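User: Design a sequence. Structure:
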């Protein structure tokens, strides 16, 4: 079914969804793009599906609650960070995140471990938000969107209570600080 294909495609397009919610999208152009990306051939059906999708869209714009949390957040920066991915780890480090298939270790020191991958010369950005972050949908997404739109790659990320921890390459530090100052300023 064409409408379902269009819906599935658009569900993965958060930037497009933002523009749809704000009424900034030319439906003809959107339909042509979707047809090109999905191989669908029926222009009219894609147009109708796009319009219905927009009507049904439950996307929450960056609202006042998200901005309130963001404006009441602050950040800390640590340089000289290493990130290791290992099969298992029983030691101590600044951060240890255990997944199903591997463990990620964030350390300020070089570790003598049998690693799957190792990255050094990284920077840890810790965004400390008010407690209301845990009941405000969209805050972490907002942080990630800001980084993405600025062209900053997030090497690793995780959260702990009110802290959102983002690891970036050291070469992106100046751009990141300018970005964070503009967001939290």
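Assistant: Done.
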């Amino acid at each position: 079914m064409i409408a379902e294909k269009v819906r599935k495609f658009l569900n993965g397009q958060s930037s497009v969804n933002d523009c749809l919610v704000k009424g900034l999208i030319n439906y003809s152009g959107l339909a042509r793009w979707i047809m090109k990306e999905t191989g669908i051939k029926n222009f009219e059906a894609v147009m109708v599906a796009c319009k219905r999708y927009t009507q049904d869209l439950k996307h929450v714009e960056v609202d006042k609650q998200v901005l309130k949390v963001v404006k009441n957040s602050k950040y800390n920066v640590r340089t000289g960070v290493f990130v290791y991915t290992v099969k298992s780890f029983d030691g101590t480090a600044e951060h240890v995140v255990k997944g199903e298939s591997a463990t990620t270790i964030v350390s300020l020191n070089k570790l003598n471990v049998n690693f799957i991958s190792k990255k050094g010369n990284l920077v840890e950005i810790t965004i400390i938000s008010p407690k209301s972050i845990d009941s405000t949908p969209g805050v972490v997404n907002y942080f990630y969107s800001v980084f993405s739109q600025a062209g900053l790659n997030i090497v690793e990320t995780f959260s702990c209570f009110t802290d959102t921890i983002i690891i970036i390459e050291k070469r992106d530090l100046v751009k990141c600080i300018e970005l964070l100052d503009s967001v939290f300023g």
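Strands lie at 74-86, 95-98, 103-107, 115-128, 156-160, 163-169. The two ends are 47 Å apart (CA to CA).
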